[in-house]
Amino acid sequence: MINLIRKFYNYFFSTDKQFARRLRPMLGFIPANMALFKLAFYHKSNSTDKLLSVQSNERLEYLGDAVLGTIVAEYLFKKYPGSDEGFLTKMRSKIVKRKSLNRIADKMGLDEFLAQYNNTRLSKSMLGNALEALVGAVYLERGYNGTRTYVVKKILRGYLDIHELESYDDNYKSQLLEWCQKNGSIVSYKMIAKYKFEKRDRFKVAVLIDGKKLATADDFNKKSAEQTASEKAIQALGILQETPQ
Description:
The protein has 11 helices and 3 strands, in the order ααααααααααβββα. It is mainly α and 245 residues long.
């Protein structure tokens, strides 16, 4: 009853009523805890005070990442009853990887919410982070069952073509290796730099074909950097498989 009153107030009388009305079609419900959903779009780059770092969407992002991974795993487990663990793992990876979440968040229009609550230049990674934070906020508001309904109906079925993903190969290293084997070339990777970014180690990796550097990429994980560098390389070679929209 209390939540119902809060939702009514948020939609008709709150100073955040316009925010609540913009959220409703995207969520399928009116939030009772508006501060929680506003926080989902508040990036840590807004604050220069270390003591205020918790007042960002990072904690919600952490929670949403875990919840989203579980819901996607359950969804795939039920959708493909005859598939093995390897197939399910690859499909889950295709859905929850950063580039996929960035693309989904962009389609959802989360950039508009981020622009409203952040006084910083928006990056693509902020989109995926905000989507995970939003899922975290939905989980705290609606619980697991409500979040599962939201993710499946509004996100997975609304913004993904799951059947296109089945045949899409997002392992760029394997694609590049296959191309090199067919063309008698040798592919290798070299770490050319390691530095600190946001207090974390970040790696810059180059991909070489027959000893010639073709592309470079940076990431917090060397394997991820190699994947991104490989993607750039096969794009330069003109053999990049089109990403499902």
